[in-house]
Amino acid sequence: MTSLAVLSPPLAPGWLPAAPPLLLPAMRHWLFRPGALTAGLRQVGGVRLRVLAEYADGAPPDEAQAMRIAPGSPVWVREVLMSVDGVDSVPARSLTPLTASHGAWQGMRRLSTRPLADMLYHDRTVIRSPFACRRLASPVPFHATALRALGAARPDPEAARVWARRSVFWRMGQPLLVAECFLPGFWTLTAGRAVPPLQPHQRTPGAR
Questions:
Q1: 57: phi then psi, degrees, rounded to nearest 5
Q2: pLDDT tens digits, 6-29
Q3: Where does substrate bind (predicted)?
Q4: What's the mean pLDDT when you consider all of the chain?
């Protein structure tokens, strides 16, 4: 059994266990919306996913801390961008120890343009940590992913508005860190739309 200590790893600097009150209710909802994010996005409109990059790398300290592995440990990284009704809306960055990408999490290497939810929410042995959120900024690794999705070569006012969330999925004792952020175009697309009330966090994907 995975311990509560593992499910709630120490937060890396800048990551928050709850959304700041200054954020609009819609932002707080999406940052801590339980369940598969793609399912929620499909309630907004047609979702298309494209793969930005897949590669082996060394785990940056910020992400290594969340996964409880040593900084620089070999990891497999997958970066994607989801659009809603043709609007680039949600970049996502996922990584797991390189050995796990050939074992407990080997399915992430075969996803192609399918979302992670296709392998996470049909396995009741998978458990999920609580969410953490933050406004993205350098040197957080995911910040560079968001900039690429925005088509920005350097920080700009658009990038400063990007908030992200992340959590860690565990299977067979192996972590899979998943981070997602919401681009300004997503908030424009959803402006004025009602959102369901925020539900309590559920850590078991199979129960959502």
A1: -155, 180
A2: 566 568 889 999 999 999 989 999
A3: 78, 116, 180
A4: 85
SS3 66: helix
Strand ranges, E, within the chain: 47-58, 74-84, 87-97, 127-128, 132-135, 163-171, 174-182
Q: What are the contacts of 57-60 at 24+ separation with CB within 8 A?
A: 57/95, 59/95, 59/97, 60/139, 60/141
CATH code for the domain in which residue 44 is found: 3.40.1410.10
Q: What 3-state class would DSSP assign to 25?
A: helix
Q: Is residue 197 part of a domain?
A: no
Domain-embedded: residue 105: yes
14 within a domain of the structure (yes/no): yes
Taking the C-alpha atoms of residue 148 and residue 141, their distance in angstroms, rounded to an integer, is 12
Token pair in block for residue 165: 């969330």
Q: Residue 176 sits in which domain range?
A: 9-190
- DSSP string for 67-116: HT--TT-EEEEEEEEEEETTEEEEEEEEEEETTGGGTTTGGGGG-TTS-T
What's the total number of domains in the chain?
Answer: 1
Enter the pTM of the model. Answer: 0.87
Annotated binding residues for substrate, written as ranges, equal 78, 116, 180
The C-alpha atoms of residue 73 and residue 88 are separated, in whole angstroms, by: 31
- Is residue 199 domain-resident? no
